[in-house]
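Example record

Each entry pairs one chain with its bound ligand, iron/sulfur cluster.
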Amino acid sequence: MEEFTREKIIEILKDDSQNDWLFSLADKVRKEYVGDEVHLRGLIEFSNICKCTCQYCGLRCANKTIERYRIEPEDIIDLAKMAVDIGYKTIVLQSGEDNFYDTDKMCKIIENIKKFDVAITLGIGEKTYEQYKAYRDAGADRFLLRIETTDKNLYEKMHPHMSFDNRLRCLKDLKSLGFEVGTGCLVGLPGQTIESLADDILFFKEIEADMIGIGPFISHPQTPLKDADNGNFILALKVMALVRIIMKNINIPATTAMETLHENGRLIALQSGANVVMPNVTSTEYRAKYEIYPGKICINDEPSKCRGCIEGKIKSIGRSISQNYGFRGKKQR
Ligand code: SAM
Ligand code: SF4
Ligand code: FES
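Structure tokens for the complex follow.
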């Protein structure tokens, strides 16, 4: 297979005449390296309270218009149990950066959920090495922390009061602690260049990430980026396809943001390199309030409905649902 240099990646991203070739090559590499099984991860969005001010995100603390919520630790554990009972082998715990869940609380949640014989993925933001270590010791298996963009200037513009170097430190700490590390980027941030997207892809490879989530940016009306255009679905798909071709056996979710921009977004993504879907298992009373961007899918659907819905869709394209934990690179047919 030809080498994907920075120049080559930029050329592919800029030239839409090669899209069909790109998507079918990504699908072929996906089939060869991770097989036809799709891993489902049950997503619990347990708090929409966040101390950060990411310019693009509806949960940013400066947004005073959303109703905030926190799910109590014992209720998070109950939600996880329900998700395991309906067949999930991984629970993803995601939230804003909410210090209410201190290290003790987080570790208790992790330890209790681990009793259900399930893998745990965390997506709870930037923490210290000691905190990450405590989560790992408590049993957490994976951690998602998108770099969002590797363009340092753009990163710092998009994340007031945060530092690019600390983001890198977090990813390095997570790797050294033995987590499966997930990162990724937003596609279509105002001011982002195609060249920087190519750098994002090369960065994912350089840090040997185990999971990569690519999401189109979707403009939220209660943020400073309210007048910005949404990211482009096809461009996000192309970035994802290139990641599959270059990184081969990693796990790649068909992201919910893709489905928000295109009614069949997740299925198209699954046929262009993705092998993971993360259906929401949060109770419906909270779903609409976790509004990172407008138009979020499934806000009124019960967990069991989403599970059945996505299973049907996956089977309709000739793929099957994995019955195992879905760690990186273990091809099961
Ligand atoms: N607070 C944690 C963090 O930032 O890592 C986890 C939750 S955060 C809501 C999860 C992801 O949502 C972020 O990594 C970001 O890429 C994505 N996100 C936030 N705002 C978005 C928007 N307007 N459009 C698309 N994705 C968005
Ligand atoms: Fe908070 Fe994450 Fe949203 Fe940033 S992206 S404001 S850290 S929830
Ligand atoms: Fe929620 Fe289809 S995945 S209703």
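The first strand starts at residue 37 and ends at 40.
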